Amino acid sequence: MARNLMRAAQYSKYGGGVADLKVVEVPVPTPGKDEVLIKVEAASINPIDWRLQSGYARPFLPRKFPHVPGIDAAGEIVQVGSEVKSFKAGDKVVTALGNGGALAEYAVAKEVSTASRPPEVSAAEAAALPIAGLAAHQSLTQNAGLKLDGTDPKINLLVTAASGGVGTYVVQLAKLANAHVTATCGARNMGLIKSLGADEVIDYKTPDGKVAKSPSGLKYDTVIHCTTSTPWSTFQASLTPNAKVVDTTPGLGIMMSIALKKLTFSKQQISTVFTAPKKENLEFLVKLVKEGKLKPVIDSKYPLSNVGEAWAKSMDGHATGKIIVEP
What we know:
By secondary structure, this protein is α/β, with parallel strands linked by helices. The chain has helices at residues 47-54, 123-127, 130-143, 165-176, 190-195, 207-210, 252-263, 279-290, 307-316, and strands at residues 5-10, 22-27, 35-45, 72-80, 92-96, 106-110, 114-116, 155-159, 179-185, 200-203, 220-225, 239-247, 269-272, 298-303, 322-326. It folds into two domains: 5-131 and 277-325, Quinone Oxidoreductase, Chain A, domain 1; 144-272, NAD(P)-binding Rossmann-like Domain (Rossmann fold, 3-Layer(aba) Sandwich). The protein contains nine helices and 15 strands. Helix 7 (252-263) links the parallel strand 12 (239-247) and strand 13. The longest helix has 14 residues, at 130-143. GO terms for molecular function: oxidoreductase activity.
């Protein structure tokens, strides 16, 4: 490569927030034998990115400082490691980076967590997929046990915070699973969520919305809970006796609820999602986007030079869909 330096966003400590996120020049990383070097065309920000900065996984992650954040990236491969078999320089790809690094001009990715990107899927659409799309997929298939081919019996499914990054994917994938979808979101996004396939949409600020009560009086067989601002117990009265609640933003409260359910031998199940990026699942999501069956919702795009604004918008918690950063 002609250049050995690149621009990247990095922070130097826990708890520094937007003020500590600086765009600097750093060396271009070198791929290992099972890795590829990607020229990043688009990256997206996930809440886990700034939660790690705040000390969410301290002292284990980040592993060292300064740290270049970002997990979701799409771009073009410019170099491959000696043992990489499925890619070559020039291939367009999307990836989930295990150790961060997406908010930069170049990033190193493992071959096993990288998927090909067809020309029908833009870099921004692809970058919006990995963590949020995989969390939605994992919630529905692994935690809730649904098939995304329409062969399951019809169930009633609730999605909270449906206009967020994960929620927008849950609504669409749940419809592929033959679910009747009730979704909560803010009033300004109700039309969007309806257009993504939701059967019922509730303004979360209304009395019924605060307890996620179905407008048609349905009880929920499955809940994909995508917000930290509402405890799952607020909608417990609307659950069926054997309901499954899947929490995509687990904290101490939900862990205690899981333990309590086990102690009381409740038939209602609560589980959490810790997204495990799998190549085959990412390939499945990319295929759905290519076929027009899944639409990444993009809130906004920022150049890398304005990454602080993108970071702050994500931290604010009111983005509709995904926030994209383009080098």
